[in-house]
Design a protein that fits this description.
The chain is α+β, with helices and mostly antiparallel strands and 157 residues long. Helices cover 37% and strands 15% of the residues. Strand 1 and strand 2 (30-31) form a beta hairpin. It binds zinc ion (3 copies).
């Protein structure tokens, strides 16, 4: 038995399809149980905000992991033969943005947005003024190199 993070009802109140719909995060492509409550809220908000009421679709950009984008429909002149769709569809990727500098966040920042308080690593480092704490807070911190770079930059000041 587990509680749904979307409608807050028990898993038994869902069929399989609805459960996946309610508990699969389109932003980071993970299950709701891989999120803290706060992180889940942040990711869902980022998607809702990014989609702005439009349809969403899965998307993969370059070498990045799969994420989500909103569907932009371009009005195209209908061809005289009446063939083909009148629309051209483009999928615009949705990102979570740093609450401080408004830059799009990377995978690590998105995954740890609850710990980082919605900040990107750069802003977080500046905010806390010590990047060492990152390693304590995020045990399997993947981007050690990035962290080191921030530290060097800060030491140069
Ligand atoms: Zn639900
Ligand atoms: Zn997520
Ligand atoms: Zn930032």
């Amino acid at each position: 038995m587990s509680k749904c993070k979307t409608c807050l009802k028990d898993s038994s109140k869902h069929n399989k399809k609805l459960w996946i719909e309610h508990n699969w995060c389109p932003l980071c492509q993970k299950n709701s149980k891989d999120h803290s409550d706060k992180l889940w809220q942040m990711h869902q908000q980022a998607v809702v905000k990014g989609a702005n009421g439009k349809k969403i679709r899965p998307i993969t950009v370059g070498f990045a992991r799969s994420s989500v984008g909103w569907v932009k429909e371009w009005n195209m002149p209908v061809s005289t033969s009446g063939q083909g769709s009148p629309y051209r569809i483009e999928i615009i990727p949705i990102y979570q943005y740093c609450t401080q500098c408004s830059l799009a966040m990377g995978d690590i920042e998105v995954d740890n947005a609850d710990v980082l308080d919605g900040l990107c690593l750069k802003c977080f480092a500046e905010y806390t003024e010590q990047t060492d704490s990152l390693n304590d807070k995020i045990p399997n911190y993947r981007s050690y190199e990035y962290c080191k770079k921030i530290r060097q930059r800060m030491e140069m000041r």
